[in-house]
Amino acid sequence: MFIVGELINGMYKNVSRAIREKDRSLIQRLALEQIECGADALDVNCGPLSKDPKADIQWLVQAIQEVSDSPLTLDSTKPEVIEEGLKLMKNKAIINSTTADKEKLEILVPLALKYKASLIALTMDKKGIPQNKDQRIELAVSILESCQKYGFSVEELYLDPVALPVNVAQQQQKDVLESIRDFKLLSSPPPKTIVGLSNVSQGAKYRSLINRAFLVMAISSDLDAAILDPKDRELMGTLISSELILNRFIYCDSYIEVYKKK
Amino acid sequence: MFIVGELINGMYKNVSRAIREKDRSLIQRLALEQIECGADALDVNCGPLSKDPKADIQWLVQAIQEVSDSPLTLDSTKPEVIEEGLKLMKNKAIINSTTADKEKLEILVPLALKYKASLIALTMDKKGIPQNKDQRIELAVSILESCQKYGFSVEELYLDPVALPVNVAQQQQKDVLESIRDFKLLSSPPPKTIVGLSNVSQGAKYRSLINRAFLVMAISSDLDAAILDPKDRELMGTLISSELILNRFIYCDSYIEVYKKK
Predict the structure, then answer these.
(1) Residue B2: what are its φ and ψ, rounded to 5°?
(2) In chain B, which ranges are E strands?
(3) In a domain, A28, yes or no
(4) Which of A54, A243, B117, B250 is within CB 3.0–4.6 Å of B112 for a Cys-Cys bond?
């Protein structure tokens, strides 16, 4: 599993404050802590309160790169903000994200190619959130067609089936889980898959229980990557145990520690 | 999910002592606590140290029935011990368990019929533990044939794929999980499925993490029943969240409490 740490996001008060006050040490500590806990990449999002997201994403990328070589997923709905981050990237970048809308794909697929970045693509469009698995598949196909058109390697693509909160979209959870499996069948080589895990429990009670149960099911569906809180030890333990049960790495008594250093 | 509480088992020191000293109150407390935590049935096992298992299972059944109407799974490798329990059952009994050996099926299937009991059948035989999914399916078929021969309703049958410890049989976990799903395809109406969850983590580190992750996967494979510790709150919360994600009961904020009172 490719683990993207979600904590450097301006929607969190501590990060929002750090961005405002240019507090590099907090951002750098969050970066190192997430990597220490097993994150393979770090999400970077200025948050909704940023008054100058182009400058803020540049500052965040620079601050993180001073202490870490981790890949970064540059997270914004605005392509021009993502590009400001891309310009400064020394290591692997992942664009987070495009939708299936043609006008977004036309900008972001070429941008990913230009900067040799990977690309996260949400199977949703201007019409809104898909209502079932078939709609997700349909949107995934149009994303794949767009990648093919520009010669963008499917192996650099992460399809996101758009996980929804269980308390408002309970009947769609199975569609999301089945989409993870079915996306793989749409091309050869197959695209990768990713979910934003915290969405599943948004607004629900006992959030960590729901996040963990959903993650196990998604891993059983061969999910490749997840954006989550790697500092949640129970969640990471659940992830690692799932990989163990599915025989993806060899059991040893210190499997938790060994996995994090993989 | 049909939840069988595992705690009334003579392999635990407190239960072994209670049996020896005829301490009804400990057994009755264990029964009520498990039911309070969400158990639908209670496993009853005299344990390996019992000198007179026939008398002990009778005493256990009587002690529990004084305080509860729950179904009991009468747990012994000896059919004559199970029958002593069956004789005293006022409520639904479940025989735990037969193997796929012909000589055991010849005794236990008719016994289940005679006492209108359900029957748990392990897909293993004298040759030992199955090594893969195909061997499990083969043994399940011979169990189903035996049920058909005696006119025993498949709906009263719980097939157990024999969960094995992840630290010694790591490559078999997927076989067990796939067997749970595939057993259902062997007859119409389908048999029910059950696992003894604690087996999965026997001897391993971080047992509760492994139990929980395996349980979520088994629930995704449409497992019908599990023998487990219902007093393990994290485990029960995991079970309930999994059922919620799979849309098996309607979300409400107090879903944990509501589920237990189902």
Answers:
(1) -95, 120
(2) 2-5, 41-44, 72-75, 93-98, 118-122, 157-160, 192-196, 225-228
(3) yes
(4) B117
Which residues form the domain of A210? 2-231
**Buried b / exposed e along A206-217 (16+ C-beta atoms within 10 A):** bbbbbbbbbbbb
pLDDT over 80 (residue A4):
yes
Q: What is the mean pLDDT of residues A132-158?
A: 98
How many C-beta atoms lie closer than 10 Å to residue B2's C-beta? 17
Q: Which stretch of A74-83, A253-262, B27-36, B52-61 has the lowest confidence by average pLDDT?
A: A253-262
Q: Is the pLDDT of residue B203 over 80?
A: yes
Q: What residues 165-204 of chain A have any CB closer than 8 A to a CB of chain B? A: 166-167, 170-171, 173-174, 177, 200, 204
Q: To which H or E segment does residue A190 belong?
A: none
- Residue A188 CB contacts under 8 Å (≥ 6 apart), including other chains: none
The 10s digit of each residue's pLDDT in B77-109 is 999 999 999 999 999 999 999 999 999 999 999
What lies within 8 Å, CB to CB, of A259 at 6+ separation is A38, A240, A243, A249
Cis status, amide bond into A97, omega within 30 of 0: yes
> Which residue of chain B is at minimal alpha-carbon distance from A210?
B241
Residue B253 lies in a domain: no
Asked if the structure places residue A239 within a domain, the reply is: no
Residue B87 lies in a domain: yes
Contact predicate B63/B24, CB 8 Å: yes
Q: Is there a contact between B244 and A210 if contact means CB atoms under 8 Å apart?
A: yes
Residue A38, pLDDT score: 95
Q: How far is CA B149 from CA A230, B107, B237, in A?
A: 54, 13, 41
Q: Is residue B125 within 8 Å of B100, Cβ to Cβ?
A: yes
State pLDDT tens for residues A196-210: 999 999 999 999 999
CATH code: domain of residue A18: 3.20.20.20
* Closest C-alpha among A40, A3, A12 to residue A218: A3
pLDDT-derived band at B245, boundaries 50, 70, 90 = very high
What residues have CB less than 8 Å from A236, skipping those under 6 apart? Answer: A3, A37, A38, A230, A256, A260
Q: Check CB contact of A237 with chain B, cutoff 8 Å.
A: yes
Residue B261 pLDDT: 80
ipTM confidence score: 0.93
Helix (H, G, I), strand (E, B) or coil at B231: coil
Residue B8 reports pLDDT greater than 80: yes
**Tokens read off for A177:** 């889980």
- The C-alpha of B67 sits at a distance from chain A's nearest C-alpha, in angstroms, of 32
Whether the predicted pLDDT of B198 surpasses 80: yes
Q: Is A220 on the interface with B (CB under 8 A)?
A: yes
pTM for the whole structure: 0.95
Structure tokens at A243: 């990989």
Distance CA A146, CA A140 (A): 10
